[in-house]
Design brief:
- This protein has about 120 residues and is an alpha+beta fold.
- The chain has one domain: Immunoglobulin-like, CATH 2.60.40.1150.
- Helix content is about 15%, strand content about 55%.
- A 4-stranded antiparallel sheet has the order 1-2-3-6, with no helix packed on it.
- A hairpin with a 5-residue loop joins β7 and β8.
- It is elongated, with a radius of gyration of 21 Å.
Length: about 120
């Protein structure tokens, strides 16, 4: 009985390996920058026939207000004023449909009363 169980585990492990090797890769593309002492990051991940777009701001002053705007191919898809939490973080996420040709995403973060900073990703 042990031999059968061991063989079954080996087959399952081999099948699992095959699935991992043949599964499509989901490529992440990210860019980072700094603005008014905070670090911002734009992460674009291919998901479900489109893109999961994540904008993160870290190390901002807790309680500070920031405008976070995301553009897709030059069109503003979200623009929100958010307040940094106790850890100085802000997260804004959106999903965008894949368009013909290259897709370009731009993140712009602007602290209240300050100048904006941006970063761009083309996939």
């Amino acid at each position: 009985m042990k031999k059968i169980l061991v063989a079954g585990v080996a087959v399952a492990a081999a099948a699992g390996s095959t699935v991992l090797v043949t599964a499509p890769a989901h490529a992440d593309t990210e860019r980072t920058g700094t603005c008014a002492g905070a670090t911002y990051e734009l992460n674009v991940d291919r998901e479900r026939g489109g893109f999961e777009v994540d904008a993160d701001l870290d190390n901002a002053k807790p309680g500070s207000s920031w405008r976070v705007a995301i553009q897709h191919d030059g069109k503003v898809v979200t623009s929100k004023v958010r307040t940094a939490d106790r850890e100085g973080e802000i997260d804004v996420d959106t999903w965008r449909r894949n368009t013909a040709g290259s897709d370009t995403f731009r993140l712009t973060v602007t602290p209240a009363g300050g100048s904006g900073c941006s970063v761009k990703v083309t996939v």
